[in-house]
Specification:
Blueprint lengths: L16 E4 L2 E4 L17 H9 L6 E3 L4 E2 L1 H11 L5 E3 L4 E2 L3 E4 L2 E2 L3 E2 L4 E2 L3 E4 L2 E2 L3 E2 L4 E2 L3 E2 L4 E2 L3 E2 L4 E7 L4 E2 L3 E2 L4 E6 L4 E2 L3 E2 L4 E2 L3 E2 L4 E2 L3 E2 L4 E2 L3 E2 L4 E2 L3 E2 L3 E3 L3 E2 L4 E2 L4 E7 L2 E3 L4 E2 L3 E6 L2 E3 L4 E2 L3 E6 L2 E3 L4 E2 L3 E5 L3 E2 L6 E2 L3 E4 L8 E4 L18 E3 L5 E2 L3 E2 L6 E2 L3 E2 L1 H10 L2 H7 L11 H17 L3 H17 L5 H14 L5 H23 L7 E6 L8 E6 L12 H15 L10 H29 L2
Parallel strand pairs: 3-5, 4-6, 5-9, 6-10, 7-11, 8-12, 9-13, 10-14, 11-15, 12-16, 13-17, 14-18, 15-18, 16-19, 17-20, 18-21, 19-22, 20-23, 21-24, 21-25, 22-26, 23-27, 24-28, 25-29, 26-30, 27-31, 28-32, 29-33, 30-34, 32-35, 33-36, 34-37, 35-38, 36-39, 37-40, 38-41, 39-42, 40-43, 41-44, 42-47, ...
Antiparallel strand pairs: 1-2, 45-46, 50-53, 51-52, 54-55
Helix pairs in contact: 3-4, 5-6, 6-7, 8-9, 8-10, 9-10
């Protein structure tokens, strides 16, 4: 049955009228000159006569005609014999539309056509322009190996089933603006002219694997309802992905960008995969995604990535020029009420950090093993590392203080301890592997050097603490050195924990006071005695002045008077001065020990305070 009348009708309608029980129906197909009927309703002799002479026509039009698969085959066969321009606008194609290995020499228009069955153009060659604007494909559409030599337009087309343009070649500009794809594949296609997909909608998976865009590729405002696959594609000129969105992943693995100045803003609900991609010119990446994979990606020129909430994997990424990765601060999405997380770095393994700058990112889950020139890594803005556990324990130092730790230390601690370590340091990694403590000491040393070069002494102090912790726990060094580090850690937290040093100093002073009151101070101040002999015949008298030995008291050792004297002795010992107080033999040794230990503890406390306030 003929299709309903398209609107508006701008041609001479077919004179054929269909009579049925419900009434009459006028055919709205375009009448074929010099007849009064459309091609479908022509008699077979007239139809054959028209098709046989088709190569002699400059242009033919079948607008609004209902065409079945057999009639379409006969039309396209006739068109292949000449340069006739053909219009199938507003046509209704019933059944399968099949055409393979043919050549259309003249322009073809399928504007607003309706394809009800499967459409298959295999290895067809269009020498002049092709127009599908406003067409509708209810079933699958296959354009495999098709060659479009002139301008091709698919604007506002609706593909309701799977569509493929695999191995297609677009020699001139092609337009897919505001197209609706259910699922499409352009694998290994070649676009020599402009490729415009502006505001197109891909409801299912879209595959552009191995596509070569030799001119401008425009995907501005495109919506991908599923995975968007651009693996192994090549963008020779500029590619626009401004405001492109995807409900799944966008994959550009092994893609090559030769003149791409900007990629984005791109919004992916899952991840953006740029692994093994190749950027030859300076590029700006603007990405809002859950993850961003840059494994083995090569940046031959300067690059800057502006990220929102993405977890970035930089494993073995190659930077030939300075690269900046800048995260936006955590924000609130007022439409959903959700908090947009801070961008984070997942891995720097195998990366030469001499060219890398990180700003406003989280490094809590970042792994640094295998990174090169980590001491030249630049951290700007606000950045965050993991925090060590805090709280109280039954073992020294009894109270854990906060410091910045790297993810590898957390993993090693959780693997090397029992349940107590799991409680403090979290779950062990799935791979059950972490770098050894001596390797972690090198990582901490390089991070410390990086912060010292940035004049960030408080930040460097945490990495120095981590370095010393790894040296203390590692078995690479000698036992004596490890015991020395153990003592250094216990007394002052490697000269960084003022509270610990002051605590030990207070304990040492209290011990000194108690020992002085008990054993160091004599019962009474020793009295001096002068003895001498008077010569019988007079003359010079010689006196010998002696002092009796101090004696420990038998009773009343802990009195306020003795406490005051002991406190003076102790305070003078802290500042490395002699009190001048008469002491017993035990008191002398107690004072010597006090003058050796307490100034050292005071110095460690001052050193720790200076390390925290120095800029």
């Amino acid at each position: 049955m003929p299709d309903a009348a398209p609107s508006p009708i701008q041609w001479t309608e077919c004179s054929h009228v269909t009579v049925s029980d419900t009434g009459t129906m006028q055919c709205h197909g375009e009448a074929v000159e010099p007849y009064s009927e459309c091609l479908t309703h022509l008699s077979e002799p007239d139809r054959a006569r028209h098709l046989n002479s088709l190569h002699e026509w400059r242009a033919v039009s079948y607008r609004g005609t209902t065409i079945n698969s057999d009639l379409f085959r006969r039309i396209t066969t006739a068109l292949g014999q000449g340069n006739t321009k053909a219009s199938f606008s507003y046509c209704r194609f019933t059944g399968e539309v099949l055409r393979s290995a043919g050549t259309f020499r003249g322009p073809i228009s399928f504007a607003s056509a309706h394809f009800e069955g499967m459409t298959h153009f295999a290895d067809v060659e269009f020498l002049q322009g092709v127009e599908f604007d406003g067409a509708r494909f209810e079933d699958s559409a296959f354009f495999e190996g098709v060659k479009f030599h002139d301008v091709t337009s698919f604007d506002d087309v609706k593909f309701e089933d799977w569509t493929t343009f695999e191995n297609a070649t677009f020699t001139n500009d092609v337009f897919f603006q505001e197209v609706q794809f259910e699922g499409v594949a352009f694998d290994s296609a070649t676009f020599t002219g402009w490729a415009l997909f502006k505001r197109a909608t891909f409801s299912a998976e879209a595959s552009f694997k191995g596509v070569r865009f030799q001119n401008v590729a425009d995907f501005q405002g495109v919506t991908f309802g599923d995975i968007a696959q651009f693996s192994e594609s090549e963008f020779v000129k500029i590619a626009h992905f401004d405001n492109a969105t995807s409900d799944a992943d966008m994959i550009f693995s092994r893609a090559r960008f030769k003149e791409l100045p900007k990629l984005g803003p791109i919004c992916c609900k899952r991840g953006l995969d740029l692994s093994h991609a190749h950027f030859e010119q300076p590029v700006l990446l603007i990405v809002d995604a859950c993850s961003m994979i840059l494994r083995h990606t090569i940046f031959l020129s300067h690059a800057s990535a502006q990220l929102t909430g993405a977890e970035v994997d930089l494993t073995h990424t190659v930077f030939n020029q300075p690269v900046d990765i800048i995260g936006t601060s955590a924000t609130v999405d007022f439409t959903t009420g959700n908090i947009q997380p801070l961008a984070s770095i997942a891995s720097l393994r195998g990366v030469d950090c001499a060219m890398l700058t990180l700003a406003t990112v989280s490094l809590k889950k970042c792994t640094f093993s295998g990174a090169i020139h980590l001491d030249q890594l630049r951290l700007e803005g606000r950045w965050y590392f993991n925090a060590s556990p805090h709280g109280f324990s039954l073992m020294p130092p009894f109270r854990h203080t906060r410091r910045q730790v790297i993810e590898e230390e957390r993993r090693q601690r959780s693997l090397s301890g029992g349940r107590s370590n799991l409680r403090f340091w979290g779950d062990a990694p799935m791979e059950r592997f972490a770098p050894r403590y001596d390797a972690l000491a090198i990582i901490y040393r390089q991070l410390r050097k990086s912060r010292e070069d940035a004049k960030d002494e408080p930040g460097a102090a945490d990495f120095y603490y981590g370095e010393m912790e790894m040296r203390r726990l590692s078995r690479k060094w000698s036992t004596s050195e490890r015991w020395l580090l153990q003592l250094y850690w216990l007394l002052s937290g490697y000269g960084l924990r003022a509270s610990r040093a002051l605590g030990w100093l207070s304990l040492a002073m209290l011990t000194t006071i108690l020992l002085m009151m008990g054993f160091g101070l004599p019962q009474n101040s020793p009295k001096q005695e002068a003895t001498g002999t008077v010569p019988p015949n007079g003359g010079k008298i010689t006196f010998e002045i002696d002092k009796e030995d101090p004696r420990n008291p038998v009773t009343e050792r802990f009195t306020s008077e003795r406490f005051e004297k002991s406190l003076k002795v102790t305070l003078n010992s802290v500042v490395f001065r002699s009190s001048g107080q008469d002491l017993t033999t035990s008191g002398d040794y107690i004072e010597m020990a006090s003058r050796f230990c307490e100034p050292a503890l005071l110095g460690l406390a001052v050193l720790a305070i200076r390390g925290r306030v120095k800029r």
